[in-house]
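Re: that chain you flagged

S.,

Sorry for the slow reply, it's been a week of failed gels. I finally had a moment to sit down with the sequence you sent. For the record, here it is as I used it:
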Amino acid sequence: MWAAGCLASCCASCACAACQGVASGISRRSARIAYCGLFAMSLIVSWLLRDFAGPLLAKIPWINTFTDTPSPEWFATQAVLRVSLGNFLFFVAFAVLMIGVKDQREQRDAWHHGGWMVKLILWCITIILMFFLPNGLVNAYGSVSRFGSGLFLLIQVVILLDFTHNWNAAWVAKDEQFWYIALLCVSVGCYLASFVFSGFLFHWFTPSGEECELNTFVIAFTLILGVSFAIVSLHPQVNGSLLPAGVIAAYCTYLCYSALSSEPRDYECNGLHKHVNAVSKGTLGLGMLTTLLSVVYSAVRAGSSTTFLSPPSSPTAGKILLSPSTVIVHLCHTMTFPSPGSLIYNFLDWSHSNVF
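Prediction finished late last night. Pasting the structure tokens below so you have them in one place:
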């Protein structure tokens, strides 16, 4: 026992020393990535708790307050909501801390970029404390976070537009025929992928012999949107580029697939019901990857660029308007649902029942 205690103490000391070494090595520039790393850790913790913490939560009396124990899915949702709430509060605190900071020489800016060991401890404590909150408060946060998840879908489109605009500008600036051809190939490739994938969507979610008006409408509307993006971009008065339109069209097709694959497994128009587990895990993984990339890109761009979401002619151009923690606050609600499709499908199902 004595030897085991010494070994555990040595391991803990080494782990603390390693964390302190990593924390001390975080500079002003890498602090943006560190904030994104905390967000990535939250995603991983949410995923693990969603899949494995259900039996443990069922034994906690202030969470399992029911006469009849709820389904495992309910406890999985509670675990994700509590991690999401803790993450949201943590980043809100640092976003509020940065209000009014306009110069990196201010003291509060030093708090924002330094003290990473303390921040990691505070983050862990905040997440843990969320599991002591009553169910009513967590469920209220879950209801509000649905709107946050919907807002994030729009934010992702803006992020994609900013990314593809910079991508297009970088290749055009080379002013060589090879890069113009590459732009055309990538743009056409995005549209071909969108059209081909839409064909698969018609095959999977509008099976023959079934009346699937909602699915047909959603897929057709997505195709019309993709074509409209190209028409608007190529209009002489807009003088845009086909690349952003193609990327957004492909992304909208992915959202359409994510929404339709979230249909109930016993729904006759869901042709993937036999592979629902594999589909849900694949969609979850892709959704988490998309979310993480969006967070990293937006935090780095907003924390360093003077033109992110602000044209050069704007009075705010040339000023750093957002800190990485402020950006991540707007993205924390994305952990509430396993994929963007769940939110979209719930809205489409409500629209179908009230319109069609």
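What I noticed first: Residues 1-25, 304-356 have pLDDT under 50 and may be disordered.

Talk soon,
D.
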